[in-house]
Amino acid sequence: MAALLNGFWLNPSEKIEDELELLRREQRVMTAATLTSLPLQNCSFERFGTAIIPVDDMTPHRDTDAQLKFEGSDLRYYVMRVRQRPAVLASMTRHQRATQCLGSADAQPWWLAVAAPTLQPEELCAASVQLVEVLPGEAVQLHLGTWHAGPFFQAPTALFYNLELGDTNLTDHNFHALAAPISLKLD
Question: Is residue 25 part of a domain?
Answer without folding.
Answer: no
